[in-house]
Every structure is written in C-alpha cells, then in structure tokens.
Amino acid sequence: MTPTSLDRPIEDGDNLLFIDRKEREYLRRVRLERPVKLRDGTIAADALIGKSEGSFVRTSTGDSFLVLRPTYAQLIPNLPRQAQVIYPKDTGSILLWGDIYPGARVIEVGTGPGALSMAMLRAIGTEGTLTSYELREDFAELARGNVTRFLGPRDNWEIKVRDARDGFDETGIDRMTIDMSEPWSLLPGAAAALRPGGVLVIYVPTTTQLKEIGDALAEDRRFSATQTFETLLRTWHVAGRSVRPDHRMVAHTGFLTVTRRVIPATASS
Fold first, then answer.
1. Lowest CB count within 10 Å: 124, 146, 160, 168, which one?
2. Tell me: the pLDDT tens digits for 162-213?
3. Is the pTM above the cut of 0.90?
4. Cα–Cα distances in Å, from 138 out to 57, 157, 258?
5. Closest by alpha carbon to 191, among 179, 178, 208?
6. Neighbours of 74 (CB within 10 A)
7. Domain ranges, residue 140
8. Domain identity same for 228 and 208
9. Rounded distance, CA 80 to CA 138, Å?
C-alpha cells in the first residue's frame, strides 16, 4: 500500500489531539524542544516524535492520554477562533446539498475562523478554486492562519477583504456559500456571479433572517428550486448495559437554504 501524507509517524510541527480517560480533548502542536502542556503535566516532544498516532502516552504527572491526528469533526470544536464556527453537522449538509465537488469554482462570503473554508478546500481538491470575501481583516487573518496551520498552504484559495455587497469580481461561478447577517442584500451580486444551474447555499441562525431570505428568493426570478432545512444531531451514551441518548444535545445551530441560479422564464416559455 502506498502511504498517504498522514500514514507516517508523528513529526515535528504536527497538530495532535490528546484525549484523556474522561474523553476530554486537547488540541496541541508538537514542537522540538518544547514540552507539550496538558493540564498539570507535560510530555516531552521527543517522547511523541516518531510514535504512531493511536498511541497512549503519559504526562510527567502520570496521566494517560490517547494521541491522534484530529479529524475535521474533532478539529472544528477546538479551532482557535474569535467568531462562531459553522459546526460539522451543518458543514456536511453544506458540502452535500451544495454539491461542492472536485474542480468546482466556489465563492464563500464570510470566513469566520476558516472552518468552512477548510472543508471546501478539501472538497474542491487542487483543480478547484475558492475565493473568500471577508469584511473584517482580523477574521481574514485568523482564517489564513488556521487554514495554513491545519491544512497547509493553498495556491487555489484567495481571501478578499472587502464588503461583498459591493459585488463580486468573478463570473461563471459554480457554487456560492453565504454566512452573513443580511444575505438577501447579496442576491443581485450572487445572481451576476453564478452560472446558470449554479448552487447558492445560505446559512442563517434565526427565524427572522430565514423569513427575510425566503421572501427575497421567492420574489427573485433568477433563483428557483429552493429548499430550507436544519440539521439536528443527537449523540448517544453507549457503555455496557447503559444505552441511551446523551443528556445534552446540540440541536439548533442554523438554517440552511439551498437554491439554484436559473434563467428567468419569459412569457413565451
């Protein structure tokens, strides 16, 4: 079997997830000659480098931790951020319902800490392109840092720090995602940027925003085949004979509206 880029021992610079016996997670980066701090103890970098992920290690205080490279779903809740992230349960729906495919040309409005950016960069592969529009420079800088740290440099990604309501530079775009407070104000620009048949995915957290965007899309003949939904995720506790739903559930996080760019019908159509 040909090894993948992650089919290798732990190396200097790796981002690792440490999980204790109570399943608490700690995201840390391994640096040579810098001990990794975990609660009250530390682990020498030399004790980690060269090990296989999936190993158990002990801190200087004797606490045992499982060491893994984080999956996307494990990374996002631990991601350094100043703004709210789009959680994996919604990201999965955005990628599938938004049909983000290898080679697609995608525009993202609102980067936050770069969580969705990372997911879409993985989905479009090296042949696709992602252009992110972000109003705030501090958010753009945080997203750049997170993507570079956890995904590596990407030549097919550009962040434009400007107000997307002023319009987009790109045309013929395949897919677009919007995560901002007044997405209805972007519909004219989105219609100009998207190709016919292109998919627009809009994320909003409140019912008042949902009503506004629903009304705006209903009146705009350049969009059709619109669907709106939310994704609920309920985890379960499975331990011995105790099998039940977890007491806590992350239920509502946001609404997703998926719509298609169309050519408006004429009187003769």
1. 160
2. 999 999 999 999 999 999 999 999 999 999 999 999 999 999 999 999 999 9
3. no
4. 36, 18, 29
5. 178
6. 15
7. 74-261
8. yes
9. 13
Q: How many domains would you assign to the chain?
A: 2
What pLDDT, in 10s, does the model give residues 78-113? 887 777 788 899 999 999 999 999 999 999 999 999
Cα 168 to Cα 188: distance, rounded to the nearest angstrom:
10
* Angle of CA points 252, 211, 185, to nearest 5°: 110
Count of beta carbons in the 10 Å neighbourhood of residue 264: 11
Q: Report the C-alpha gap between 155 and 153 in whole angstroms.
A: 7
- Residue keyed to tokens 């997670």: 25
Same domain, 150 and 242: yes
Instruction: At 116, give phi and psi (nearest 5°).
Output: -70, -35
Choosing from 50, 70, 90, the residue where a domain stops is 70
User: Is the Cβ–Cβ distance between 106 and 158 less than 8 Å?
Assistant: no
User: Residues 81, 83, 89, 91: is their CA dihedral positive or negative?
Assistant: negative
Tokens 């951020």 identify what position? 81
